[in-house]
Amino acid sequence: MLLGRVAGTLVASRKDPSIEGHKLLLVRTLDIEGAETGQFVVAMDAVGAGVDEVVMVAQGSSARQTDVTRDRPCDAVVMAIVDSWEVDGQERFHKYHQAGDP
């Protein structure tokens, strides 16, 4: 699984019929400190994520395990919206404030 921040949406007017009506998101991957890595992934949205939200992305065969992606040609899925994460007892990210803020 990867951590990422939703950078935007992707529109494809011609696509496999099995993914019609499903939202595709462009996600910038993040490192453990929350910094962007410079890499991107296109992922099908299974949870209603929006631009600028921090999300968890599953890839490969695991990406086809959600109700939204089952039996669809999908290699990456946004399967969770992150509320917070902690590393070595220190909060690195919290959805409603920056780590280190009061």
Question: Which descriptors would you attach to this protein?
Answer:
mainly beta; 0% helix; two-stranded antiparallel ribbon; 102 residues; OB fold (Dihydrolipoamide Acetyltransferase, E2P)
Please outline the major beta sheet. 5 strands, mixed, barrel
Decide which structural class fits the backbone.
mainly beta
Q: What is the CATH homology-level superfamily?
A: EutN/Ccml
As residue ranges, the low-confidence spans are: none
If you compute it from the alpha carbons, what radius of gyration comes out, rounded to the nearest whole angstrom?
A: 14 Å
What is the end-to-end distance?
30 Å
CATH architecture: Beta Barrel
Number of domains: 1
Overall helicity: under 10%
Q: What percent strand?
A: over 45%
Shape: elongated
Descriptive overview:
The structure is a single chain. The chain has 102 residues and is an all-beta fold. 0% of the residues lie in helices and 46% in strands. The chain contains no helices and 7 strands. The strands form 2 sheets. The protein has a 5-stranded mixed β-barrel.
In short:
The chain has 102 residues and is mainly beta. The protein is 0% helix and 46% strand.
Helix/strand layout:
Blueprint: E1 2-10, E2 24-30, E3 36-45, E4 54-59, E5 76-81, E6 84-87, E7 90-94
Parallel strand pairs: 3-5
Antiparallel strand pairs: 1-2, 1-4, 2-3, 4-5, 6-7
